[in-house]
Amino acid sequence: MSETMIDMKVLRIFEGELEHAIKCRCVEPCSTEEYINEMEDIITRTRIVSSKKDTYKEEFVANQLVEAQINPSLSTKMRHELIDVLYTYNNAFASDNEPLGAIKGHEVDITLNIDRPYPPVLRRPAYPASPRAREALEKHIQ
């Protein structure tokens, strides 16, 4: 895991409190200057990661959710939460590149038996009816 991802995790664990995050990164007690440098480093790294994620999310919304019809009565917060969930789990949904149904490693060959002699199911008439019912159907059709 990269340092940036570790910084993001530490910030998430301590709910964004930089002081706790820096204390976790500094093994030894650090000077004020080192403390400030660590703080700036963490802030810079997390901003870079956040901006990259936002760019990818914007592309996802522009490309994948163009035709999506999201309930207009949702609040802005709920709409953003829904988009976050869709973005986070976008691999669970079908796309142009990977449609659903193609599960690698679980391919199945289905062979249809259409050669003579036909299987009993194929020998049956399409709409089985007794002779009396067949007469009534023919009268009704004419």
From TrEMBL:
Basic and acidic residues bias locations: 132-142
Domain of life from the UniProt record: Eukaryota
Residue ranges of the region described as Disordered: 123-142
Name assigned to this protein: Uncharacterized protein
Organism for this UniProt entry: Austropuccinia psidii MF-1
